[in-house]
Design brief:
Chain lengths: 110, 119
């Protein structure tokens, strides 16, 4: 079974930069997985930040950026703000209509 | 405006069955693949199942294959998930989501319905 691993947690200072990663248990993440990044608060619908590796969703501040770093997908927050404190999930396309979520990263801004 | 509204969750017995629903509005339902995603208490998001727009093709996570059945009634703009042989680990908020096939993501989500499996 495919496992997509993210860092469990990160702490970043206000104004600081943090890079979250999303890796596959077997193999490398590539643009063919069309990585998507969601910001999620339990009880609410996930908010799309980045899709297709690096395309910013409408209305998302440019302090959020996506990329492939080595063999992983990455989400970088540059100039973190207090309201960036949240859970972040990557989503990878694995084939027709089939996806897998990453394990999630809890970001704390303090 | 796209709206997805789940219902049918509740308390169910281990080994029992439950069917949850998701009513869609604001878009042409049968042109979109739809999925179920769940989040257990204190856990992350988990992709559960997907179904093509026509309903002819279905897909399941290994963790639920053989116990869950996804279906849809396009005449009623409704998505279903039947959960059989319920286990405690099926306790979660189940949300339906619309797939944007062009961009390989879920672009609309429901608020979810809570399924609790307990005796």
């Amino acid at each position: 079974q495919t496992v997509v691993t993210q860092e469990p947690s990160f702490s970043v200072s206000p104004g600081g930069t943090v890079t979250l990663t999303c890796g596959l248990s077997s193999g490398s993440v590539s643009t063919s997985h069309y990585p998507t990044w969601y910001q999620h608060t339990p009880g609410q619908a996930p908010r799309t930040l980045i899709y297709s590796t690096k395309t910013r969703s409408s209305g998302v501040p440019d302090r959020f950026s996506g990329s492939i770093l080595g063999n992983k997908a990455a989400l970088t927050i540059t100039g973190a703000q207090a309201d960036d404190e949240s859970d972040y999930y990557c989503l990878l396309f694995m084939g027709t209509a089939t996806y897998v979520f990453g394990t999630g990263t809890k970001v704390t801004v303090l | 405006e796209v709206q997805l509204l789940e219902s049918g969750g509740g308390l169910a017995q281990p080994g029992g069955s439950l069917r949850i629903s998701c009513v869609a509005s604001g878009f042409t339902f049968d042109t979109y693949a739809m999925s179920w995603v769940r989040q257990a208490p204190g856990k992350g998001l988990e992709w559960v199942s997907a179904i093509s727009g026509s309903g002819h093709s279905t897909y399941y996570a290994d963790s639920v294959k053989g116990r869950f059945t996804i279906s849809r009634d396009n005449s009623k703009n409704t998505l279903y998930l039947e959960i059989n042989s319920l286990r405690a680990e099926d306790t979660a908020v189940y949300s339906c989501a619309r797939e944007s096939a062009a961009n390989y993501l879920y672009d609309s989500w429901g608020r979810g319905t809570l399924v609790t499996v307990s005796s």
